[in-house]
Protein 1
Amino acid sequence: MTSTVHLGESGEQARIVPDEHDDGWVLEIGGAVQSHVDLANPRRIRFEYLRRMANVLDAAWPADRPIRILHLGAGALTLPRYVQAKRPGSAQTVVDLDRELPSFVLSALPLPAGTDLTVMIGDAREELRSLAGPHFDAVVLDIYTGVDVAEHLTGQDFYGELLASLTRDGVLLVNIGDDAGLHFLGPQASALELACAGSGLSGAWALADATLLERAQTGNVVLAAGGALATDDPEALRSALLAAGPHPAAVLDPAQTAALAARLG
């Protein structure tokens, strides 16, 4: 079975097709693979950067504790499915610019029973402002950004707004997709570091494929910040996140992330 829909805001065609390699499903937007979903086992996350985000959520709070989480960017709702499977009773909100996408995904790939999900349609920054206040235990920013692409969803001011939407022990997760050389990552990591300083936080963590960072290759890096990551033993947290993979894994604490940002310029 293949389902398709035209996305009015982006002008792209979205398709949901069976995965060629397993029993899961793949969301394609504009011909590019965007998300993977395993309906039979929502705890299985195939995309590495999403798996690293899930690992941070797992490390932030005791197992099974429900959380309030905001997802900026819908995709195929892979992470909301994971949160429901791991933390039943969580209150989840998703924001997407394309009105047709969430309903298309929900129709073709239903959520696990009992999922508490509110869908909002609009610009991520504008919708965030309508939710102003420290409401969320976690905020996930997973929207494609870059030079001349959704620049208003990057930078120190926006990251400060995201941090302000967190509870005292919350966590912000930002997906940075970058090209070879990682020229976008450096300024964004520095911007988040400055936003953290303005919020009384020590800085941002970075999680990625170790080879990607060593060779400055094209790929995704997860930046994480918030009170949930404040600890008297950062090495223990770093070790736990490293062990969780996917491998080869790199986990940089705030000082190491700042050094990487300075090196990348």
Protein 2
Amino acid sequence: MAVLMGLLWPLERLNNAVLAVGRVIAVAALAVMVCLILGQVFFRYVLNDAPNWTEEGARFGMLWMTGLMAPLAFRQGGFVAIDMLERALPKIGATLLSLALLCISFWVLIIAWDKGLNNHVDSLTGRGCSSSLRWPFGIEVGKCGPKFANQYQYAALWVGINLLILVNVELILRNLITLMGGADRLTDLRGEDMAGAD
């Protein structure tokens, strides 16, 4: 169990730091997204002429918000779950079931990692240029010049998958430690501000 705890502590600290930064960026992305959508509604219905880039900008914010918040929700148990069977099982059975589901999730995440990189970020679409989003002040960056490269949007999926893999490995280690009787040595991951469906 000492080896597992030695693996868990650095990973837990890394996830704490990375997910805290991701949360701040995700909240900023949400604020930008809301402002862009409200601005688009205002310009469309009041001035009868909405800028064409606001929709794509809002989508950009939504993708990054989702990619950065999904790992935090996964870690804190914030996803919707049907846990009747888990609650009906004894503690060891519930932990084994949770461990099996986390291993299946890990396998799915590894497949998604490949798809996120090869089918989105490093694909023909990902290498393309945005139709309407441009860098401010006419700045030219890379092969797309003043337009955003699509990779900046599609990278949200791949970054989110990487963070989900880190969280999944941490949760697997925590379940293994629980099976070995070390549950009392684990810190509680549920945030105080995390809403639940209980």
Protein 3
Amino acid sequence: MHFASERTLDDGIGEREFTLDDVTGILWTPPIASPSTPVPLILMGQPGGIGMRRMYSRLAARARSAASYGFASISVELPGSGDRAPLPETEHARADLARAISAGEQPSDTVIDRLILPLVDRTVPELQTTLDEVLELPEIGERVGFSGGAIAIGVRLAATDTRIMAAGLFAGSYVPRSTMAEARRITIPLHVLLQWDDEGNDRGMALELFDAFGSREKTLYANMGGHTGVPHFAGDDAARFFARHLGVDAG
């Protein structure tokens, strides 16, 4: 992990841009983080195909919220986003998905698989490699949570990486049938956000996925409104969820 730049935000949060192989990302640390006071880490997901430059203000706001609870945050550029090479197979599948939705049809499992699985297959190993590196930093503790982004990525990561101790997931995208099977293997605490009238989401599929999770502690947090209508207080509830499970008094 090579840190390319470093600055301190006006509230004392450290912000470091880094590169790891061909992946770029940003690490935010609260003022209290130090080798003598290592802090928990939130791995922040983001939607595919948008890029960190366009997402920066939203990511930084989430990092500030996490820092207020004493957590560090990290986010990486997803495959096919930003300056990274495009994923032609997912672009074709996204066009097929849009055509099906505009025609009032249910997208086929094949289209959903073509859209989601290549991104999951590429992203999860990159996130695990990033965790390998950042958890070696003396100011970062061993408690890790996953927050937001494509829900299929969060499910795969939570099902396969024991370092993830809690996950806050956004039920805002279609999921492959294989993701349902992976969800049954998850036992960590979950906080799942669902926008009830999300125009780009299959509500029934989201509810089926929530039912499939094997966790004994799982909360479905549903609000009225579309994909971009998430109320501001929903973030506060998610932050309290992570404070409960990753904070110094957790576990």
